[in-house]
Amino acid sequence: LRLLGWPDAFATDGVTNRATNRATNGATDGATDGATDGAANGPVVPGSPAALAARLLISLASAEVQLGHVESGFALLDRAAELIAPEHRGVLLQQRGLLLVLVGRIDEGLAFMDRAVPLLARSDEPQILVRTLLNRAMLHNMAGRVRLARADLDRCEPAAMANGMHLDLVKVAHNRALGHLLEGDIPAALRSFETAIQGYKTHGPQWVGVARVELARALLAAGLPAEAAGQLDVAIASLREQRLSQEWAEAELFRAHAALAGGELDLARALARSAERRFRRRGNETWAETAALTRLRADFAQGRRLVAVATGAAELADRLRAHRRVSHADSAALLSCRAYVALGRPDEARRGLDRVRHSTALDNRLQRRLVLAELAAASGRRAETFAQARAGLSLLADHRSRFGSLDLQTGTSTLGAELADVGLAAALAAGAPARVFGWLERCRAQAFRVQQVRPTADPDTIAAVAELRQLARLVRNAELNGRRQPQAQRRCAELEREIRARGWQVDGTGQHSKPATLPELTAELGRRTAVLLSFLVRGRELLVLAVDDRSVSLRRLCEWAAVAEPAARLRGDLDTLCGRLLPAALDAVIRGSVRRQLDALTDLLLAPLRPLLADRDVVIVPTRTLSALPWGLLPDLRGRPVVVAPSASSWLHTGRSDPPDWAAQEPLLVAGPNLHHSAKEVAAIAGSYPRSVVLSDGEATVRAALAAIDGRGIVHIAAHGHHEQDNVLFSRLDLVDGPLMAYDIHQLKAAPAHVVLSCCEVGRTVVRTGDELLGFTAALLYGGTRAVVSSAVRVADDVAINVMSAYHRNLAAGVQPARALADAVATEPLAPFVCFGA
C-alpha cells in the first residue's frame, strides 16, 4: 500500500472523509460501485501490483465488515474500485453486494449481485460465480422467491461439482433447506439441514454453527421450541468463539424466538434486546428492527405496555416495509392489530389489518385469522369468530398432515393454540354445550386424526438404534449392580437425539380425518350404555363436558389447583407403597393418605355427576396431569368399566368397529429379565389360553418380541418399564438384550390389537399443548392398537400377578377389556391399572 502512495491506509481514523461519506451513504458513483474501467491513472493490467492490491483490499473489506467495522470495510472497497482491472469488475460487484447484505441493505446488495453474475459468467473464475449464485439464492429465499432461488442453485450446483468445490456443494444443500422451510415442507428442510451439517463437519466446520441456527428455525416452525433452543445454545457458543458478530446476533435473536415460544418471556425479552444492540453496533438496522419486534411480542404475551406495543409495532411495520422485509412487516402489523384489539380499540386494529397483504408464510396466515377472530369476538359476532378460527385450524391441520413424525405432529398444536382458545372461549360464552363439544374435538389430540406413516428406517438409523440398545443394556446392568457408566450414558443421549432428528425428516401423507360429530358420539354411547366425561381447564377452573345418549351438559367443578394437588400426592403415595416393606406405622400413614386423596378427587371430579353416571360404563377424556390418574381406584368407579381416551374422536374411531374374538387369539406372552415374578406371571396367564407364544429367559429378545408383536391379537409383556419424561420416544421395556422402546412401536408394520403391560410407569404420558400425548402407551394407540392396559405408577409384583391372571381369565372368556379389568381389580384395592383406548 505504501508503494501505491497510500501510507495512511490503516491510520487510526481508518479512512478519509470522502471514503467515509461513501460508506455511510451507499454507492453513488462509478468508483464506488466498481463500474470504472480502471484506476484514475489509466487501465490496470491483470496481475500488476495495482490489480493484486485491489483483490487484497476486497478481501480485507470483508474481514472488516465481518468484525463490525462497517465504514472501514466499505472505504476499502472504494479504494479497490480505483484499482480494479476490467476483468475483475464482477468480483468487486459481488463482494460489495454481499457486504451490503451483511449490513442489512438487502435490495442494494441484490442489485450488485445481479450486475455481477453476467460478468462473472464470462470470466475465468467459476468459483466466484458459484459463490455469487449461492449468495443470490440466499437473498431470493430471504425475500420468499423460492423459485428464483432454486434456479440459481440448480445453475451453481453442477459448476461447483465440476470444480471440486465441496464446501459450496454443502452450501447448496443448506440453501435448498431454506427454500423447503419457506414452502412449509419441514421434513424436506430437516433432511437438507442434516445433509448440510454433516457436510460442514467435513468441509467447513466453521459453518456448522450457522447451519444449526437455520435448523433451529425449522424446529420452531414445527412447534419444538425446546429442541430449537438446544441447537441454538450450541451454535451461539461456536459463533461467539469465532467472533462472527452478525451470525452470533442472529442466533441470539432466534434463541429469543425459542424462549418466547416456550413461555420464557423475560428471557425472550432480554435476548431480543441483546441481539438488537449487537445489530445496531454493526449498523444493521434491518435485523435490529426484527429484534425489536421480538421484544414487543414478549411484552404482548405478558400483557404489559400494550399501548407501546400497538404503536411501536405499527411503526416497526412501516420501517420493515421500507427495508423490503415484507413478511416481517406483516408480522409487526398483525401484532399491532392484536394489541389494539386487546386495548378495546377495534377501529385502529381494522385499519392496521387493511395494510397486511395475504402472506404465504404459515405463521402470518394463522395470525391474520387470529386477528379476524378476535375482532369478531370483540364485536359479539360469534358466527364470524367460529368461521375465522375454523379456517385457521384447517390450515394448521393441512400443515400437520405433511409430517410423518409423531413428534412434529404433536408439536404443531402449539402453533394453533391461540386460535383454538378463541374458538373455545366463544363457544363457552355462548353457553351451548354442543358447540363446546365441537370445539374441544377440533383442538384436542389432533395428531390422532392424522394418517400415520410407518417409515422404513435407513441404514444409519438402524445402526444407531442397535448401538443405543447395546449401550442402554450396559447402563441398565451397571445400575442394577450399583455402578454408573457416565460415558455410555452420554453416548446414549447423543444417539437418542440423532435417531429422533432422523424421524423428523419423514414425510406425511397429507391426509387427516374429520373430528367426531355429536350425533355420532351419542349414538355410540347409547349402543355401549356409556357416558363420556371430557375434562377441560379454563383459566383457573376445571370444567367437565358430560355426554350420554340423550344429553350433553357442561359443568364447572372446581379450581384446577384443588385437583392438581391431591392427584400429585396420590401418585407419590402409590409409588412409595409399591414393593416396599415399610414399618407398620408408616405404612398405615401412607395408606391413610391414599384414601384421603382418593376421596378428595372423587368429591371434586365425580360426586357432582353421580346422577348422570348411574350404572353406566364411563369413557374419560382427561386433560393435563389427569391423563396419569389411576381412575379405577376412585370409589365411584371401582367395579365399573372405565376407558381413558385421548379424545372423543379417537374413542369413537377405535370403538365403533366390533372387537376381535379375544378367546380365539394366540397371545404373545413375554417375560422380561431381572423381574422376580415375570416368569411366574406369564406361566399363570398361559393357562388361560389353549394356544399362546411364550418368550422368556434368553428368548425374550427385542428382535423376537417385535417380530411376534407385529399384527398380533393379544400381547402381554411383564418387564421392567421406564418412562422417559424428557425424551418419551425412548420410554422403554427392558428385555434380555436391551430395551424395547416406544421408537420401535412406530416401526411395526401392523399394530397389535390389544396390549397389556404389567410394567411400572409405562402408562404415563407427556402432555403437550392441545392435550397431545407422547409416551409408550400413547405410541401404541397412535399406531392403531385398540386397547392398552397399563399403569401410570409403580406396580408391586404380587399385585401384578393376581390382577393379570384374573384379567386374562376374563378376557379369554370373551369379556371386553374394560369390564375384564374392572372385575380383575375387585380384590386388589390399590391396583393402579388403567384401560386406555377403547
Furnish the topology, listing elements before pairings.
Blueprint: H1 17-25, H2 30-33, H3 49-66, H4 70-83, H5 89-102, H6 106-121, H7 126-142, H8 146-162, H9 166-182, H10 186-203, H11 208-221, H12 225-242, H13 245-261, H14 265-281, H15 285-301, H16 306-322, H17 326-342, H18 346-354, H19 362-378, H20 382-400, H21 406-411, H22 417-430, H23 433-443, H24 459-480, H25 486-504, H26 518-528, E1 530-538, E2 541-547, E3 552-559, H27 560-577, H28 584-605, H29 610-613, E4 617-621, E5 642-644, H30 648-655, E6 668-671, H31 678-686, E7 693-695, H32 702-709, E8 714-718, E9 721-722, E10 732-735, E11 738-741, H33 742-745, E12 754-757, E13 766-768, E14 772-774, H34 776-783, E15 787-791, H35 797-812, H36 817-824, E16 833-837
Parallel strand pairs: 1-4, 4-5, 6-7, 6-8, 8-12, 12-15
Antiparallel strand pairs: 1-2, 2-3, 9-10, 10-11, 13-14, 15-16
Helix pairs in contact: 1-4, 3-4, 3-5, 4-5, 5-6, 5-7, 6-7, 7-8, 7-9, 8-9, 9-10, 10-11, 11-12, 11-13, 12-13, 13-14, 13-15, 14-15, 15-16, 15-17, 16-17, 17-18, 17-19, 18-19, 19-20, 19-22, 20-22, 22-23, 24-25, 27-28, 31-35, 35-36
